[in-house]
Amino acid sequence: MEKIEHIGIAVKNLDEANALYEKLFGIPPYKTERVDSEGVNTSFFKMGASKIELLEATNKDSAIAKFLEKRGEGVHHIAYAVTDIKAELKRLKAEGFELINEEPKAGADDKWVAFLHPKSTKGVLIELCQDRE
């Protein structure tokens, strides 16, 4: 793992959250994107090397909708940048981590993504990200 790629924050209303974070950071999001496969609308803020992803559910069956129902708004996951996501998944599985995704899938912000189950990471949802280029 190279660095923290971003921190994902679940929100009930993306427009309201964008307005709040624009005031907080003094900048607008650099990207908004709908990810139908995950049932979310996202926006990304970047300050230097740090990024924040806001996630809003687009349907009641999405992972974000279930998270919001159970825990409310707040930190949803921490994402780490990797150079070879398939090799990293293989390594982590061999180390005993439980994978939510055995294979990477297309995610927001032009990334390949895969998640580790929080049961195997002391309650933290971990996302691995690799550029899709």
UniProtKB/TrEMBL annotation:
CDD domains: MMCE
Record flagged with keyword Metal-binding: yes
Domain VOC, first and last residues per copy: 3-131
Pfam families in the cross-refs: Glyoxalase_4
Molecular function GO labels: methylmalonyl-CoA epimerase activity
Keywords, in A-Z order: Isomerase, Metal-binding
E.C. designation(s): 5.1.99.1
Top-rank EC class of the record's enzyme: isomerase
InterPro entries in the cross-refs: Glyas_Bleomycin-R_OHBP_Dase (IPR029068), MeMalonyl-CoA_epimerase (IPR017515), MMCE/EMCE_epimerase (IPR051785), VOC_core (IPR037523)
Family listed: Belongs to the methylmalonyl-CoA epimerase family.
Protein name: Methylmalonyl-CoA epimerase
Gene (name only): mce
